[in-house]
Amino acid sequence: MSPVIRRAMLGSRGPNPGQVRAVTAALALAALAVGSWALVERAETLETLLFLALAASIVSVGVGYLSERHHRRHLEHLSDSRDLLQQTVRSPLSVGALLGRLCQIFGAGFAEVVVLPDAPDQAALLVRVCSGRITETSEAVDQVLLADVFSVTVPASLSLVLREGAGPLESDAMLARRGLHGAVMAALSVEGQILGSLMVGRGQGDLRSFTDEDQRLLEALAPQVGVTVEKLRLDERINHQAFHDSLTGLANRALFADRVVHALDRRMEPGRLRAAILFIDLDDFKVVNDTLGHASGDLLLQGVTRRLRRVVRPFDTVARLGGDEFAVLIEDPAGPEEAVAVAERFLEELTDTFDLHGAAVSIGASVGIAIADRPSMTYDHLLREADVAMYRAKERGKATVETFDAGMQRALERRLRLRGDLEQAVSAGELSVEYQPIVALESGTMVGVEALARWDSPRLGRIGPREFIPVAEASGLIREIGRQVLRTACEQAVRWSAGEPGRELSVSVNLSPRQLLHPDFAEEVATILRETYLSPSLLNLEITESLLVENTATTLERLRALKDLGVTLAVDDFGTGYSSLAELKFLPVDALKIPKSFVDNVATDARERAFLAGIIGLGRTLHLRVVAVGVEGADQLDELRDMNCDLAQGFHLAAPLDAEGVAELLSRQAGTASADWGHRPREMALARCSSGDTESLPRTA
Fold it and tell me: What is the dihedral of CA 322, 483, 478, 688, to 10 degrees?
């Protein structure tokens, strides 16, 4: 049977009318050929010529019919394919079905779509059909893959036919990598942009070659395949945006919740843990945003994301829940210690500074851990426990890890009540200020006081600063509390000096990072000084050393603005923040405050005595006053005097007093020998604070 007849009879559902007509025409052509040969043998010239003319006419009509039918067949294929392509494609599986259709159209067993990624650091998508089996993979974009895709851009038509052994070598290699004998290939292009490539091929067992007409057909189909792939990419992008954070690329809250729910629904062997959650909150992130701007804050979040990804397993889920809150889902952990190890490795990653547009910034994090150790655990329950543990980590001083226990829930409930009560207390003016005297050790004279915030709640009684200051910091109330304490202290300092023109009693106020790093803080201080009529030289503002280390450039700018007002500045808790001497040398500060922990054993431990002497010597070298905090015994006071420490404060000298107590103390001091300071402390210290209010409590306003 001739190839024409064989091709006409092909079809999986039997011959259609067109095929029957094609077979009939082919048979007629064969009969005419036999008849014409017989006439030639008889050499009947006139009859032969007439018959050949008739035969030529019939052959011409038949060939035209077959050509038209072949063309119509391809048009039908093209139309069918376009109908399929125009359907909405929502998943790579639909692309796989399309490739299967192309295999049918071209009588091939292999088809492939390569979709290049949107960004260089992403993987390419490969969807293949081979012998009816659909596979979808992601592959790194390397030189080989790019060479394969862009080989179709060499011809002007953006398509080509590959034939084994026909060259070039790159084409043979491309076929060999796919196990093909031949292929036809076209570029996927939308609006002039190459998205990838489309290939249809035949394996080594099928030696038929693709024709130029096959090339034209695939080239005609390729633009619609490109549109389909672009729709797929758009859908994937929309889906990714719906479940991922746009800034960091991490899972968002919705996707994280879905992953946790699936983890909790899994059946586990007895004794195995389903999951653990890490709830991560960056420490003082708002300070970075307020001082360096949101662009730097975004850069910091992206840097934190990279470091967080380095410490988790590839199949763990890392999410950004919002703002500076992150979460990690650890599925099937070996035990609680595995989650703790991940958290600790992350905190180690944060020890190196971040470069934010030229500013070196350090950031810590508080991490709470919750373990799904009960079958009844739900996502909301687990996340709430991790959140509670994170707040406990904040209370412990930040940059630490806590695992949830039942006692934390009770503490959280109390903290929530405290927050509500504190908001009311700030609005109602329930907070007060007490003042702890600061004594010059050489003269024995009280030269200043430190202002301390106090809260006597009508409902809860006296709440110590150790408890309410962290709540104020976390809730943002600290700025308003600090403003109230600063104004009250300045007003009171003016009252103490009234009627005593020669008396100069300074007042020290502890600042929180939120206050100092706020852009308008210097103006706030200037306004309070102007409205209270306090001499700027009598106001001493204290900042923690850790703040200097974490935000050197910004802090230096704020400190200089305050110095321009004429106030004095002190570094609180000096020796605990690891600041360098080079930094300290250039800071516009006037005094160093030695923390209580350095004073406690000065009279009994030679090493600590030497360490404290070194700090005092450093202060004198830099022409800075040194204030020892937490002096609670006469032996400590004697050691400090021997070391030529400038100033001291503590319960051995005087406990915190209200304004009237300070006024009475000033009056007694005027009529008492100054040397009595430190030798008769209990008579002179008119303490009105509770027994639980010790010098070790936070002094932050």
Answer: 180
At residue 686, what are phi and psi to the nearest 5 degrees? -85, 65
Q: Which residue has the higher pLDDT, 550 or 658?
A: 658
* 321, containing H or E segment: strand 317-322
CA dist 52 and 557 (Å) reads 105
Q: Quick one: average pLDDT of 126-137?
A: 90
Q: In terms of domains, do 229 and 276 share one? A: no
Tokens standing for residue 429: 């003016």
Confidence at residue 410, expressed as pLDDT on a 0 to 100 scale: 80
Percent of the chain with pLDDT over 70: 79
CATH number, position 557: 3.20.20.450
| Phi, psi at 593, each rounded to 5° | -110, 120
Alpha carbons 39 and 52: distance in angstroms, whole number:
9
Six-digit token string for 134 = 């659909």
Question: How many H helices and E strands in the chain?
Answer: 25, 22
Measured CA to CA, the distance from residue 606 to residue 124 in angstroms comes to: 67
**SS3 annotation, 655-689:** CCECHHHHHHHHHHHHCCCHHHCCCCHHHHCCCCC
Residue 416 lies in a domain: no
Q: Is residue 437 within 8 Å of 449, Cβ to Cβ?
A: yes
Q: CB burial class (10 A; 0-12, 13-18, 19+) of residue 306?
A: exposed
In a domain, 700, yes or no: no
pLDDT, tens digit (0-9, with 9 covering 90-100), for 59-78: 555 555 555 665 566 566 55
Which residues pair with residue 330 across a beta bridge? 276
Hey, what are 171's tokens? 């084409």
Q: What is the pLDDT of residue 407?
A: 80
Clarify whether residues 153 and 168 are in a common domain.
Answer: yes
pLDDT digits (tens, 9 = 90+) for 434-460: 999 999 998 888 999 999 999 998 888
**How many domains, in total, are found in the chain?**
4
Q: What is the CATH number of the domain that holds 155?
A: 3.30.450.40
Task: Enter the tokens of residue 575.
Answer: 């020796």
Helix (H) or strand (E) holding 45: helix 45-85
